[in-house]
Amino acid sequence: MTDWSVLGVRLKAATGQDPALDAAIAEAFAAPSAAYTGSVAACRQLVATVLPDWRLHVGFDASGVLPYAAVFKDDIRVAAEAPTVPLAVLRCLAELATMPHG
């Protein structure tokens, strides 16, 4: 069973590609192995797989420096900033996984 708070802390500390973190992400989401922390395409595919009815938006913060990602559906929206776009996407997924489901 995944400890989402621990995975979230690891993602917040990450600054780039990390094969050990990629393995933990694949295990947490029961997804194929991929370079999630270094690949926008792999992260987009992960979102499409684990959140098929959700939308993903990526871009840069107001300063134009820090990448961010947002995933949303209906009235639920989670956004995160990170050093890279893949890490921002993964931070969103980890945060969603910790949210209570009603």
Describe this structure in words.
This protein is α+β, with helices and mostly antiparallel strands and 102 residues long. It has one domain (4-98): Bacillus phage protein (2-Layer Sandwich). The chain has 4 helices and 3 strands; from the N terminus they run H-H-H-E-E-E-H. Helix 1 runs antiparallel to helix 2 (19-28) and helix 1 (4-13) runs antiparallel to helix 4 (85-98). The longest helix is centred in the C-terminal third of the chain and has 14 residues, at 85-98. The radius of gyration is 13 Å and the shape is globular. The model has no long low-confidence stretch (mean pLDDT 93).
Summarize the structure.
This protein has helices spanning 4-13, 19-28, 40-50, 85-98; strands at residues 55-60, 67-73, 76-81. It has four helices and three strands. 44% of the residues lie in helices and 19% in strands.
Fold topology:
Layout: H1 4-13, H2 19-28, H3 40-50, E1 55-60, E2 67-73, E3 76-81, H4 85-98
Antiparallel strand pairs: 1-2, 2-3
Helix pairs in contact: 1-2, 1-4, 3-4
What are its keywords?
102 residues, Bacillus phage protein, alpha+beta, globular
Q: Return the CATH architecture.
A: 2-Layer Sandwich
Return the average pLDDT rounded to an integer.
93
Portion of residues within helices = 40-55%
Q: Main sheet: which strands, in order across?
A: 1-2-3
And the CATH topology? Bacillus phage protein
What string, H for helix and E for strand, traces the elements in order?
HHHEEEH
Beta-strand level of the residues, as a percent range?
A: 15-25%
Largest sheet: 3 strands, antiparallel
- CATH level-four homologous superfamily name: Bacillus phage protein-like
- In total, the number of domains comes to 1
Low-confidence stretches: none
Tally of strands? 3
Judged by helices, strands and strand pairing, the structural class is: alpha+beta
Number of helices: 4
General shape: globular
